[in-house]
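Following up on my earlier message about adenosine-5'-triphosphate. Here are the inputs again, as you asked, copied directly from the submission form:
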Amino acid sequence: MNSLLEIKNLSAAYGESKVIADLSFKVPKDRIVCLIGRNGVGKSTTLKSIMGLVKTPSGQISYNGEDIIKLPAYERVKRGIGYVPQGRDIFPRMTVEENLELGLEAGGGKTRKIPDYIYELFPVLPLFAKRKGGDLSGGQQQQLAIARALVSKPSLLVLDEPTEGIQPSIIWDISKAIRRVNTELGITVLIVEQYLKFVMGISDYLYVLEKGEVILEGETDSLSQEKVQKMMT
Ligand SMILES: Nc1ncnc2c1ncn2[C@@H]1O[C@H](COP(=O)(O)OP(=O)(O)OP(=O)(O)O)[C@@H](O)[C@H]1O
Ligand SMILES: [Mg+2]
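Thanks, got it. Here's what our run produced:
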């Protein structure tokens, strides 16, 4: 199958401390892929490597057939990778609308107006357009962060633990929105998660990570939740 993103023999480090030594995995076009694993195995570091936010001394990150490993973060965003960091990272003192407008700029200004599909996917956002980001609930902030990454219509959406600290009803809203992003907008999705029920429900393919290495992978339908759970404990 055609890969939109392909990581090969990647290493990543903070200063002298190497967190990932030799990681390889693929994200096929048009699918929803999850990367899971216990705390501290290097999930966020993997996503930061894809975004160009951490040192990657060796390996390849090929996106749309181009090796992007040497490109600065903003160039990767311009090429169509939308990123929602762990902890969401919205601007609490700016309004919802202003937060979304920042996403337009990050996308290189291809689009000037917040597209209608954003408000259709997340109906709570137009209601709170003039409210400060910091006044939204955790789940609403997560929706805002995802929306901000989507305003410039990326071809790959990368999410770091979108369910972390969020109440169950909003988790399922977010799950539905991500599915629609995939099926209706044709955006490929890579999600880092620890919440297994969410992962088993949303992903087509999954990788289990341990100390920066893939220890299990497969079509989600072919894996039992028990087996995956065991690999994570
Ligand atoms: N800025 C940093 N400087 C030094 N070490 C770091 C830094 N960020 C993370 N690490 C270390 O790198 C390792 C992997 O961290 P990472 O955040 O990628 O894990 P994770 O799988 O995302 O964990 P979690 O599930 O808790 O989010 C950990 O040992 C962590 O302590
Ligand atoms: Mg993390």
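One observation from looking it over: Residues 168-183 form the longest helix (16 residues). Hope that helps, and feel free to reply on this thread.
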